[in-house]
UniProtKB/TrEMBL annotation:
The organism of origin for this protein: Acer saccharum (Sugar maple)
Residues that span the membrane, as ranges: 26-49
Name used for this protein in its record: Uncharacterized protein
UniProtKB keywords: Membrane, Transmembrane, Transmembrane helix
Pfam families in the cross-refs: DUF1475
UniProt keyword annotation of Transmembrane present: yes
Listed InterPro entries: DUF1475
Highest taxon listed in the record's lineage: Eukaryota
Length: 79
């Protein structure tokens, strides 16, 4: 049981850092983190699917991993 809880909270911590990095507002980041703590893997799947639906470019990995500010800055540099 202890190992399961430690594993869960390590995963939630890593995913929470990614959510805070990706989200544009603190309120939405906090809501997602609370959902991650309460529902775990289901919330992770929903968040990833939501991020995949936001993809409009040719390089999905680039869009999923970077937050919107970095994408906009990099897009301006490439054009």
């Amino acid at each position: 049981m202890t190992a399961t809880l430690i594993d869960f909270y390590i995963n939630v911590t890593a995913l929470s850092v990614w959510v805070v990095y990706k989200e544009s507002s603190w309120i939405s980041a906090v809501v997602w983190i609370i959902l991650l703590i309460c529902f775990g893997s289901i919330t992770t799947c929903v968040y990833i699917v939501q991020q995949l639906f936001c993809i409009t470019c040719q390089d999905p990995l680039y869009l999923v991993l970077l937050n919107s500010r970095n994408r906009a800055e990099n897009w301006y540099e490439r054009t």
